[in-house]
Amino acid sequence: MKSCAATTTATSNPFLSFLLRTWNSGSCDYSLDTSRFLRDYAVWEINAFLWISLITITCLLTNKLFKLFKLWTQARKIPGPPCPSFYGHFNTVSKQSLTELLSDSHGEYGSVVKLWLGPTQLLVSIKEPELIKEMLLKAKDKLPLTGKAFRLAFGRSTLFASSFDEVEKRRELLASELNGRLIERANVIPTKAVDCIMEKLHHIMGKGSIDCKMVSQHMAFTLLGAMLFGDTFLAWSKATIYEELLTRIAKDACFWASYSVTPFWEQGFWRYQRLCTKLKCLTQDLVQQCSKNYKLYHGMDPVSHNETANAGMEATVGSKSYSGIFLQDFFSLEELNCHPKAREEPCGDIMGMMFHGCLTTAGLISNMLVRLVTHPEIQHKIYSEIIMAQKGSGEIDQPNAEKMPLLLATVYESARLMPAGPLLQRCSLKHDLRLKSGVIIPTGAILVVPVQLVQMDDSSWGNDAAKFNPYRFLSTTAKISGSLNKDISIAGPVELLDQGQSSFVLNDPNKNPAFLPFGSGTRACVCQKFVIQGIARLFASLLEQYEVRLQPGSKTNSKPMTNDSIFQNFPSPEIAFSIRNN
């Protein structure tokens, strides 16, 4: 029976049958027929493999070619300047600022224009506020280059991936933490952050003048670190090293991400990776310190508390701060929701938050400092508002920022005039984008909003759109004129105080669709309220104790500088902090 079964199996496979006949013949040498058969069989296998490969490659290329023709066909319906060459407007962009080119194009072709950055790369710019609002709600993804920059620098992240589906749940949890319980706990942090900042600045001032950009960077880093990590960060001995590493990595992140293929052959790339690894180790050390203090805060480890208590830890346990609680709550929530990536790489999210937060917050603080030193009358009125808010509330340490509308309006106006970047970028990775105006934007096209142009457009902000006027965000309590764009002179005597209360109320800036310093729609900055409140409290504590002035001989320029990809701040002036006599 076994022999019959073996014979049947062999006869069903010609190749096995041939081998059995050869073996049964007892011959040890391959015959000519055997060699020819094996050769023909090998040729057949190779030909089959080559045909399958050829068909597969042809299908892939045909699919790409079909998508390319579809892109060209759909793009023809979008208005825009004609391509000067096969490479599109790439050479034009290299010679002229992209913001200036978009400004000229919008002026000639309307609110939606296209530019070709190459034969396969389409850029679509939108300037109309209502269309911008619609686009930002529908285009949920970010450019792959953005995710690559974060991944190279900080590793895997569930907050800064390009696809919205990968970050949606994480963003909701982060927004709940930052804009909810964390703001309530953070009332005391800016005062401590100011003390820590001024301690370093006094040391620098003893050696000479202070550069506004350097001050802003240090203030943003200290504020963000203190509000995320509490007193642990302020007492952390490696904070200065962490700040220097974060700054160096921020400068090179986009450069190394711009390579289509990771440049393993470049020595500079490996030096950059070593810096990133060192930053990750420091982040892990900070998280461990927070976890330790979290246990101390809840009395979970009294023996360790007696052994390791120091000034920073005593401040943590003895105050109303939340050292480490934010991290513990945030990541434990992720674990309960079964997000294995968060458990594998929590440091990637933390470093990304510090990187992105410091970069944007430093620019806003720098612009606000420049505005205050160039408009001392506004600084004086804000100081009066802070004093009256303290008297009215009875809070000695830190009044509520909501009671200081002029201060908040100054923050909003500074953010309007100096956005974090020249362009707000989005894309749709899975499907075409159809706008109500009838425009169809192809899948994969780069969608941009020229934020600088939109936020300084006269049609949205009035004739004084290019001027610093925080009163555009205020309306009188008498409701005589509640217009967001009303032109109220900031040079004349404006009465701010009325029996201990401000005579102005703050309008919601987000009701104006042209207000986009924090983005809008599904991928808007989840930290907007957190950042605004933090900066307002920081300046309330700072201006209560110090007056900010221009260093004698220092000059400012009211016009910012731009290049092709980075919207830079003013030429950084030298400033000085004078202690108030009170």
UniProtKB/TrEMBL annotation:
What residue ranges are annotated as transmembrane? Answer: 41-61
Q: Which InterPro entries match?
A: Cyt_P450, Cyt_P450_E_grp-I, Cyt_P450_sf, Cytochrome_P450_Monoox
Q: Which cofactors go with this protein?
A: heme
- The residues the record assigns to binding heme are 525
Task: Extract the GO molecular function terms from the UniProt entry.
Answer: heme binding; iron ion binding; monooxygenase activity; oxidoreductase activity, acting on paired donors, with incorporation or reduction of molecular oxygen
List, alphabetically, the Pfam families matched: p450
Q: Does the keyword Signal apply?
A: no
Q: What does the record list as coiled-coil region(s)?
A: none
Entries under Gene3D superfamilies matching the protein = Cytochrome P450
Give the record's keywords alphabetically: Heme, Iron, Membrane, Metal-binding, Transmembrane, Transmembrane helix
Q: Which family does it belong to?
A: Belongs to the cytochrome P450 family.
**Protein name, entry field:** 11-oxo-beta-amyrin 30-oxidase-like
Name its species: Herrania umbratica
Q: Which gene encodes it?
A: LOC110425805
